[in-house]
Design a protein that fits this description.
The complex is a heterodimer of chains A (485) and B (314). Chain A is of the alpha/beta class. Chain A has 21 helices and 8 strands. In chain A, 62% of the residues lie in helices and 7% in strands. In chain A, 33% of the residues are buried. By secondary structure, chain B is an alpha/beta fold. Chain B has 3 domains: 150 residues, Rossmann fold, CATH 3.40.50; 47 residues, no CATH class; 83 residues. Chain B is built from 15 helices and 9 strands. In chain B, a hairpin with a 3-residue loop joins strand 6 and strand 7. The two termini of chain B are 49 Å apart. The chains are: A alpha/beta (485), B alpha/beta (314). Chains A and B meet through helix 2, helix 3 and helix 14 of A and helix 2, helix 5, helix 9 and strand 9 of B. Chain B: This is ATPase. Chain B: It comes from Parahalioglobus pacificus. Chain B: GO terms for molecular function: ATP binding; ATP hydrolysis activity.
Chain lengths: 485, 314
């Protein structure tokens, strides 16, 4: 049961529930304290240690039901299986009668031959003729199939599944392959062999054995299906996220935009949680009595100097300047989306958009949801780029507000259409601001080629980086949060 | 706390019964949480909307076990001097003044400075000893001989720094005081933390706790709660009023009425000798359930339909 609990935790992790080893140990303790008899109680208990938000709890409940459904259900399932068996027997009988004469004839022949040995069971009869078949029937697999011993069967199946590494399943195309492997591991090959032989001998036991074989196959198929849902779904999600976050942002198809937005939100939440320290607002400060007295020792117990517990004030400000001309617009969109998604942590973000002129667009973001605001910005400021003119506009708008707590992020390809770059403005920003970050969606190799002014602008930046997929974007935002903390 | 000392907590069923005898009707999930907290010696972090009985849970546990309840209300700016311990500065100052004269007697006959200092050393750190220590709630909970119920209320209102301060206490039941050393709890207390989710609690703190979310109760459970708290309300009215509160919760309100409001309302209806809910009465007593003018306004227009649909249910 312990391994199954650990596996369950693996499943939870693949569904984005973060669980530390210490919590795994706690979960074990919980299971020990509560016992396995009351399913709901165990579920609630485990939820208390493993899920830490209402959202995680919902995920937990879903996974718990899926994961433990078959494991626990198997125990109660045997009655159901017994119900199922006669039914299967009936269809078997039906097919026999439908088969018509040949089937009947074969059946007749059998009853003639082995009348005495109470031949209800053609399989046992046939086994009398062939020692190999007898051996097969004595195998534990056939025994559990014939005696309808679900527990033994599911035990054997999960052992086989563990051996072939079923929990590594990733793609639905692997389902067949894994089913085959498990069947081989269970020793289904012998049954298959026996079926072929019986076929050759045209034995009456054929149908019976075939039925067992099909039953086994179906069981295994079900098992693989369930495990696929359990393991691969979460993993595929991760896989997808991984791919998306490494794709160049302007190559992401429209179809995936929704997914990317969700991904941005997710990344932003993660970062916000990591750096989500509440910014301190200064209070007048309380008298630090301990320190005052300790310092007072030097003056013979007279409290000469007083000391206060003071809290410093920290007001980081971020100015995001985005090129929204055709070539860069897609990137600007994601940068802005990201910046506004971490608003809880960086409350003072002002955004500016430019192509041939520059304007502040913070207002749009206050009024509209981020996605809509980005569209509006593109519409208002799109066009051919003029970096020089835009920097002038920017300086006019904000130069007075830039101080040592200001971070300026510029996103653009620095392709100025051979215009005047106005490097002097960027330099004066560089001198006043805490940091100037330039994000360029072009790869580093292309910087400085053609009309790119990147090398010159780079000289007036604290930090210039290539930024064209979500992974890089996330890294940069993280750095930003770290430095403004 | 030893498991044998508290037969009240020996199984989930007994906890439910025990709580019920003190008028706290709880779901199985809550009882399981208390059971686990006791068995595994882990704190419980209780979350949920205001008024669903988070604080009450701790109080009832303390009644059930007849242990003292030590409560620490968190707020922004709460620091260790108010939560953990403080030195009795006044006393220290006074004693230094008083004892100054004694010093002369003590050092009489001492040869040179070294010997004087040595004599003084024999007395140890008198001023930073337990006698001068003023225990605040957290330390006090550690000092109880038979254990205690420690309630850290609304931990989400405190600062991040304070959360880190709690970590040592919650995982090892000990407190480090630089001047004295580590104070281990005599008997580890049972700890309840409550949070209203105004901000996310840090992972480190969450990891150390069992996580219990108390939602609004089902109709059936809430009726039982009302019955145990306000036994004089007769059954049909009780059913009616709980139904009504439940349909109120489905409206879009600023502050959804919680269990405590339902109980208050039941009490007020009792005072007014109500036998059946009618529109007039509900309107005039809505202010017991709803705490915002906006909410009352938006609910008033719905009262008639809600009452009708509820009686339709019967």
């Amino acid at each position: 049961m312990q391994t199954s609990l650990v596996n369950f935790i693996q499943v939870l992790r693949s569904h984005d529930v973060r669980i530390s080893p210490a919590e795994t140990l706690d979960a074990m303790d919980v299971a020990d304290a509560l016992g396995y008899s009351d399913r709901n109680q165990l579920r609630d208990g485990l939820a208390m240690t493993l899920a830490k938000t209402p959202h995680e709890e919902a995920v937990f409940m879903q996974c718990f039901d899926r994961y433990f459904s078959h494991k626990l259900a198997d125990l109660s399932d045997s009655s159901q299986a017994e119900d199922a068996q006669p039914e299967a027997g009936e269809t078997n009988a039906d097919s026999q009668t439908a088969d018509g004469e040949s089937g009947e004839a074969a059946g007749d022949g059998e009853s003639y031959e082995q009348d005495g040995s109470a031949g209800d069971n053609p399989l046992a009869d046939a086994a009398g003729d062939s020692p190999e078949l007898q051996q097969l029937l004595d195998s534990s697999l056939m025994q559990s199939l014939m005696n309808n011993d679900r527990n033994a069967l599911s035990m054997a199946m999960s052992q086989a599944a563990a051996k072939v590494g079923l929990n590594q399943i990733e793609m639905f195309t692997q389902k067949g392959q894994f089913s085959r492997k498990i069947l081989d591991e269970l020793g289904e090959a012998h049954i298959r062999q026996a079926v072929i032989e019986l076929e050759r001998a045209n034995s009456p036991a054929l149908d019976e054995l075939r039925r067992y074989r099909d039953m086994l196959r179906e069981q295994v198929r079900d098992l693989v299906d369930r495990e696929y849902l359990l393991h691969a779904e979460g993993r595929n999600q991760q896989f997808m996220d991984d791919i998306l976050s490494k794709t160049r942002l302007n190559n992401i198809e429209h179809h995936y935009q929704q997914k990317v937005q969700a991904l941005v939100q997710k990344m932003a939440r993660k970062l916000a949680a990591r750096y989500g320290r509440k910014r301190k607002t200064t209070r007048r400060g309380q008298l630090n009595m301990a320190r005052t007295i300790r310092k007072g020792v030097a003056t013979d117990g007279v409290l000469f100097n007083t000391y206060f517990r003071q809290v410093s004030r920290d007001k980081p400000q971020v100015l995001a300047v985005c090129d929204v001309s055709g070539s860069v617009a897609a990137y600007a969109k994601f940068l802005l989306m990201f910046l506004y998604a971490v608003q809880d942590v960086l409350p003072r973000v002002r955004s500016f958009a430019f192509s041939n002129h520059l304007g502040e667009v913070s207002g749009l973001f206050d009024e509209h949801p981020v996605e809509r605001a980005v569209e509006l910005v593109n519409w208002q400021y799109g066009g051919a780029t003029d970096y020089g003119g835009s920097l002038e506009d920017f300086a006019r708008l904000t130069m007075d507000d830039i101080n040592t707590q200001t971070t300026v992020i510029i996103l653009g390809d620095a392709r100025n259409n051979r215009g005047e770059p106005r490097l002097d403005i960027l330099q004066s920003i560089y001198q006043r601001a805490k940091q100037v970050i330039w994000l360029n969606p072009e790869s580093r190799k292309a910087w400085g080629t053609g009309d790119s002014e990147m090398p010159r602008y780079q000289s007036a930046c604290h930090f210039a980086a290539e930024c064209n997929n979500l992974k890089q974007l996330e890294r940069i935002i993280e750095q930003l949060l770290k430095s403004t903390r | 706390m030893n498991t044998e000392d508290f037969p009240q907590l020996e199984s989930v069923e007994r906890i439910i019964e025990g709580f019920e005898s003190y008028g706290y009707i709880c779901s199985r999930k809550i009882a399981t949480a208390v059971f686990l907290a006791f068995q595994l010696r882990k704190p419980i972090l209780v979350e949920g909307p205001p008024g669903v009985g988070k604080t009450e849970l701790a109080k009832t546990t303390s009644e059930l076990l007849s242990l003292p309840l030590i409560r620490l209300q968190c707020y922004e700016g709460l620091d260790e001097a108010k939560a953990l311990y403080e030195w009795k500065y006044g006393k220290q100052l006074l004693y230094t003044q008083v004892l100054k004269e004694k010093l002369g007697d003590l050092l009489q006959g001492a040869q040179g400075l070294a010997e004087s200092v040595e004599r003084l050393h024999k007395f140890g750190d008198i001023f930073y000893s337990e006698d001068f220590l003023e225990p605040r709630p957290l330390l006090k909970a550690m000092q109880q001989d038979k254990g205690a119920i420690l309630l850290i209320d609304e931990v989400d209102k405190s600062d991040y720094e304070f959360e880190s301060l709690l970590l040592e206490i919650l995982s090892d039941y000990q407190v480090s005081i630089p001047e004295i050393g580590t104070v281990q709890a005599r008997t580890s207390p049972m700890v309840f933390l409550t949070s209203n989710n105004t901000r996310d609690i840090s992972d480190a703190l969450k990891r150390r706790c069992l996580h219990l979310y108390i939602p609004f109760p089902s109709v059936e459970l809430e009726e039982r709660i009302v019955r145990s708290r306000v036994p004089d309300v007769d059954e049909s009215l009780r059913h009616q009023l709980v139904q009504f509160v439940h349909s109120l919760r489905e409206l879009d309100l600023k502050k959804t009425p919680a269990i405590s409001e339902t109980i208050d309302w039941a009490r007020s209806l009792l005072l007014l000798h109500t036998e059946e809910l009618d529109e007039e009465l509900v309107r005039s007593t809505l202010n017991v359930l709803l705490k915002f003018e906006d909410d009352i306004e938006s609910a008033e227009s719905e009262v008639r339909t809600m009452l009708r649909s509820n009686t339709g249910d019967n």
